[in-house]
Amino acid sequence: MRMLAVILVLFPVSSFSFVAPTSSSIASAPFLRGPLPRRPSLTHVRATDSPFADDDKNTNAGDRDIKAAAGALKGGSGLGDFEPQKKIPIKREVIVGDPQQKVKKQKEDVTDILRELAAIQSQGPQKYCLLGTRHCSFLHQTIIELLAYALVLSGNHVYTSGAVGTHAAAIKGGLRAERPDLLTVVLPQSMDKQPPEIQDLLKDVTDIITMPQNDEMSLEMSSRICNSYLLSQTDQLISFAFHDSTTVNEATKEAKKLDMLVTALYLD
Fold it and tell me: CA separation (Å) from 164 to 94, 141, 168, 196?
């Protein structure tokens, strides 16, 4: 501190003056030998001197390539009128084949439904018509016989025709119930036209209606007339047939036209 005070006394601040260094003085300096570097001017800077010049070139070239490709696609290079920049709408419609089409359900009449419910809940006796094919297996004949037996036993009146198969089983079931007044057999022709086994079976039936006027007709035609008469006398139809049983299926259609309750049981 004492030496600093002596220096300030010997060399006051006002005696100092600053002189800007010149090129000759700088050049004469021992630590700055050699030419001075030239500072570049902003007006002399070129695009090639930029450190990002290569990136700019690449970017511009990429843009030019994209524009050229778009122009080629638009101009037509085998793609037609397709434009890459245009969005293609996505169709959501699903087309299905005919097997997948929904079948329109037939509208049911409320009156038919109420009538069927009333018939099921009714406690009074009903008149049932049992018709069916002649070609029945032993199992089917057993089921038909049990059905006729149950109907007659519960007080219902069973109507059927005379033939082997369905009709013979219905006759056996009605006879088992031991109510001859509730079993009626209508023959399409005279008694002599019936098979021997049916004639033996009908010996125990008290209510038999024959149609000898149809003896000259074919069995198919006389059976249709007989079925129509049976449908006119009954309230409900229960049929046992195959899909190709012409006569029985026609009787089923006729019963529906007569507004009867129909239960069609197909054996195939």
Answer: 56, 10, 5, 10
Sheet bearing 183-186, strands edge to edge: 207-209, 183-186, 157-161, 127-132, 236-241, 261-266
pLDDT reported for residue 267: 87
Query: Contact, 168 vs 193, CB < 8 A?
Result: no
Angle at 228 between CA 182 and CA 262, to 5 degrees: 70
Residue whose C-alpha is closest to residue 210's, from 232, 193, 231: 193
Q: What is the pTM of this model?
A: 0.56
Per this entry, what is the length of the chain? 268
DSSP conformational letter for 34 = S
State yes or no: pLDDT of 75 exceeds 70: no
Helix, strand or coil, per DSSP, at residue 163: coil
Residue given tokens 């000898």 in the structure block:
212
Task: Give the list of residues 6+ apart from residue 129 with CB closer than 8 angstroms, or none.
Answer: 159, 160, 230, 231, 233, 234, 236, 237, 238, 255
3-state secondary structure 223-249: HHHHHHHHHHHCCEEEEEECCCCHHHH
Tell me, what DSSP letter sits at residue 86?
Answer: S
* Inter-residue contact 209 to 234 (CB < 8 Å): no
Lookup result for tokens 């079993």: 183
Name the amino acid, one letter, at 39: R
CA pair distance 25, 112, nearest whole angstrom: 128
